[in-house]
Amino acid sequence: MATKTKKPTNLTLTKLAVEVASRLQMPQARVKAVLAELVAQIHEGVRAGHKVTLTGLGSFVIRVTKARTMKSALLGGKTVKVPAKRKPTFRPAAAFKQL
To answer: What is the helix (H) or strand (E) element at residue 37, kind and residue range?
Structure first.
């Protein structure tokens, strides 16, 4: 008989803050504030067009797609203009890929 595999649980920012606070013996509220500021700084850096690199984890960058035209199957093959976009992307570090 096959054994069931457990569904992986999500490690949310709150759960991460609890874990870090217990390991470093710091107040949980302080760790949450630090993590919230870290996320805010990543957002600001990427929004400004900078590459944000966290060594051992990866890089956050903006990927720019060009404007283009394409045929839409939903509109019966009519040509539709797709505007240029700026998409935030994450590129994992080599060490992170090997997990």
So the answer is: helix 28-47
- The architecture (CATH level 2) of 51-99 comes to Irregular (4.10)
Count CA atoms within 13 Å of residue 62 on its CB side: 14
Instruction: Give the residue extent of every domain in the chain.
Output: 12-49, 51-99
Q: How many residues does the chain have?
A: 99
Could you list the mean pLDDT of each consecutive 10-residue stretch along the chain, which spans 99 residues? 73 93 96 96 95 95 93 87 94 91
Q: Is the pTM of this model over 0.90?
A: no
Q: For 27-48, what is each residue's pLDDT tens digit?
A: 999 999 999 999 999 999 999 9
Query: Which segments of 1-99 are extended strands (E)?
Result: 52-54, 58-65, 68-72, 78-82, 85-92
* d(C-alpha 1, C-alpha 65), whole Å: 49
**Distance in angstroms (rounded) separating the CA atoms of residues 58 and 91:** 5
Contacts of 98 (CB under 8 A, 6+ apart): none
